[in-house]
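WARN no homologs supplied; continuing
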Amino acid sequence: MNPELQRRWERLLGEADKLLPYYLEATAGISHATKGIRRSELFFFYAITAPLQPTRIIESGRARAQSTLVLARLFPETPIVSLESDADSADVGMAAERLRDCTNVDARFGDSLVLLPALVGPGDVVLIDGPKDLRAMKLALRLLASNRPAAVFVHDLWLGSAVRRFIDRHLPQALLSDNPNWVERYARLDSSKPVPVATGTAHRAYGATLGGFELGVADYRLPFWQCLAAQGADRLASTARKVLRRSRPIRPPDFKVVS
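OK structure emitted
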C-alpha cells in the first residue's frame, strides 16, 4: 500500500471510531436484510461521506429500500434522491411502506444511465447499486470525470469479478470495504461470528464489497476510457463462455483467499 493510501485509511479508521456510536444509535431497530448492502458496507459509506457534508445523496438502485432507509436515518437533514429503474417491480410496495415517514427522501423511477449525468451536481455523493459490474463503474467514472460529485460509491466489486480486476489494475487508490483493516474492525456489524485470523498477505474476500471513489484523489478521465475497453473485452469473454458452455464467475464465500 502506497503511503498516501495508507494515510487515507488511517484517517478513515480514526473517523469511523468517532462515528460508530451515532451509526449504531441511528440504525437501531432496522431489520437486517439478507440481501443488499451489508451493515459494515453502509457504515463504510457513512464514515467516508459524513465528513464530506454532502449537498445531496443520490442513490441508484432502491429495490426494497433497505439502504435508503438506513441513509435517511443517518442523514436526516440531507436530501436523498433515490432512483429505481423498474416501476413495476414487486419490491415497489415494500419500499414505499418503508420510506413512508422519511420526509427527506425523494423516490423516483427511471434509467440511472440516462438520469444521473444530468442530475448530479456539485457536492453530491452518489451510491450506485444498479446498474452492476463494469456498466456501474463506467457510469461512476463518467460522473467523477465531470468534477461534480464529492464522491461516488459502487457496490458489488467482489474479488474475482471483472470490475474488481479493473479497479485493482487502474484505480489502486480506491477505498474498498473488504480491506482487511475494515473487515477486522467492523465485520461484527454483520455477524457475531469471529473473524478468522488472517495468515500471510493474500487478499481474502468479504461480502459483495463497496468501493469509494473520491473527487480529487485521481484523474478519472483516462480510467473512463479504460473501463470502456474493459467492458468490451468482458462482453467478448462472456460470449466465449456461452459458446464453450462454461459457467460465469461467482462471488467467493467470505474469507476465501482469492489470488
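The two ends are 17 Å apart (CA to CA).
OK
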